[in-house]
Amino acid sequence: MDTDTVFKALADPTRRKLLDLLCERNGQTLGQLCENLDMTRQSATQHLGLLEKANLVTSVRRGRERLHFINPVPLYEVYERWVRKFEHQRLNLLHDLKRELEGDSK
């Protein structure tokens, strides 16, 4: 996995929005995705291309349509390599401390 490419793809808020949209409903066309974005189809296509280059999105042709699907494997690999080792006990303690300091009772 090219971790740098994945992190660069995730660094952009529009690309994260595209991933969120695909997570909500996988297998969307460019038109369906653009309904939830404030940008041209050409710009959305460029962002999808970068997500595909990072292997975060795959696309499949269905007739004249191209359906886009999220690929969770690179995200899982990033999680395993960069997030997992920092979580659980330490993060739970920090989260509880933050809530207590902010007076959040939830």
Characterize this entry briefly.
It comes from Martelella mediterranea DSM 17316. By secondary structure, the chain is mainly alpha-helical.
Strand content: 5-15%
Helix content: 55-70%
Largest sheet: 2 strands, antiparallel
Q: In the CATH hierarchy, what is the class?
A: Mainly Alpha
What does the average pLDDT come to? 91
Structural class: mainly alpha
GO molecular function, one term: DNA-binding transcription factor activity
InterPro entries: ArsR-like_HTH, HTH_ArsR_DNA-bd_dom, WH-like_DNA-bd_sf, WH_DNA-bd_sf
Protein name: Transcriptional repressor SdpR
Pfam families: HTH_20
Descriptors for this entry?
DNA-binding transcription factor activity; Arc Repressor Mutant, subunit A; single chain; WH-like_DNA-bd_sf; HTH_ArsR_DNA-bd_dom; mainly alpha; 106 residues; two-stranded antiparallel sheet; Transcriptional repressor SdpR; 11% strand
Q: Which helices and strands, and how do they pair?
A:
Layout lengths: L2 H8 L2 H12 L5 H5 L6 H13 L3 E6 L2 E6 L2 H11 L5 H14 L4
Antiparallel strand pairs: 1-2
Helix pairs in contact: 1-4
Organism: Martelella mediterranea DSM 17316
Protein name: Transcriptional repressor SdpR
GO molecular function: DNA-binding transcription factor activity
Description:
- The chain has 106 residues and is mainly alpha-helical.
- The chain has a single domain, classed as Winged helix-like DNA-binding domain superfamily/Winged helix DNA-binding domain (Arc Repressor Mutant, subunit A, Orthogonal Bundle).
- The chain has helices spanning 3-10, 13-24, 30-34, 41-53, 73-83, 89-102, and strands spanning 57-62, 65-70.
- A hairpin with a 2-residue loop joins strand 1 and strand 2.
- The longest helix has 14 residues, at 89-102.
- It is elongated.
- It starts with a helix and ends with a helix.
